[in-house]
Specification:
- This protein is α+β, with helices and mostly antiparallel strands and 148 residues long.
- It is 36% helix and 29% strand.
- The chain is built from five helices and eight strands, in the order ββαββααββαββα.
- A hairpin with a 5-residue loop joins strand 3 and strand 4 (44-48).
- The radius of gyration is 16 Å and the shape is globular.
Length: 148
Amino acid sequence: MFRGVTQLSLDAKSRLAIPARYRGELMSCCDGRLIVTVDPSKCLLVYPQPAWEPIEEKLNSLSSFDPLTRGLQRLLVGNASDVEMDGAGRILIAAPLRKFAGLSKEVVLVGQGSKLEIWNEEQWNLQVEDALDIKGGDIPPELAGFTL
């Protein structure tokens, strides 16, 4: 289970050091084999390989005749990149993925349960500001009775 926000830096070779608190779980569940792909929100998604495989299967089983479905297949599956943590717990973020998400040196890693998100730091800060700007009428119906 991945949760929390961590500010990180890409190194000169575009590698991202996975925080130590996640490394043990990633080694035990998938031997450090991960899938990095793009998200329509302009961030990157990082899945342990076993968690990604059913998602990829489901996406590929959908009809490619629907233009929206085909676009999502192209986006998520077409950009999926197999990566492996090195001995220091780092993963290499490929240039096309960095470009898509607008990643430079400073990034934010966000735990989202079964996956992680990698954000450009400025874009992440905008996401947080947008999330704080919830007004009573803007809450989706499924959250109407939700309390913390």
